[in-house]
Design brief:
72% of the residues lie in helices and 0% in strands. It has 140 residues and is an all-alpha fold.
Length: 140
């Protein structure tokens, strides 16, 4: 009997990967990892913000001035953008984590429930980030 060789797909290029359309659950999964990396990378900044804000009244003044005058050569607007990234990272990571806990606890997740909870995760993290970002940038 002759051996039949299967055609294997070639190596995938980045251009090929960008043409795939992920379902919302896949997007949430990738963003969950991205938000975790953002929080990990900015952990020294988080620790500095906490330490500076609670050490003394003078250091709190320096903390508050970081959002307007900046920190060293970094302008205040960029500090606010970094904090906005942290806000989104935390909110998305938290909501996606609760989504996973809920799915693990109920054991009754269908494809439609996974789709709906992924959409809820994406929408709620975006809406809460916009609300807190408006407060951060002084829009209300």
């Amino acid at each position: 009997m002759p051996e039949i060789k299967k055609q294997r797909p070639g190596t995938m290029r980045l251009a090929d990967a960008t043409q795939y359309r992920l379902p919302p659950a896949g997007v949430v999964s990738i963003l969950h990892r991205v938000s975790g990396v953002i929080m990990f990378v900015l952990l020294p900044f988080i620790i500095w913000m906490f330490d500076t804000s609670v050490t003394s009244e003078i250091s709190f003044e320096r903390f508050a001035a970081a959002f307007t005058a900046g920190i060293g050569f970094v302008p205040g607007g960029l500090v606010k953008l970094a904090v906005l990234g942290l806000i989104w990272g935390y909110l998305h990571h938290f909501i996606a984590g609760v989504r996973h806990l809920w799915m693990d606890a109920t054991h009754s997740v269908s494809k439609e429930q996974g789709h709906q909870s992924a959409l809820f995760t994406l929408a709620s993290s975006a809406v809460l980030t916009l609300a807190l970002g408006a407060k951060l940038f002084g829009l209300y």
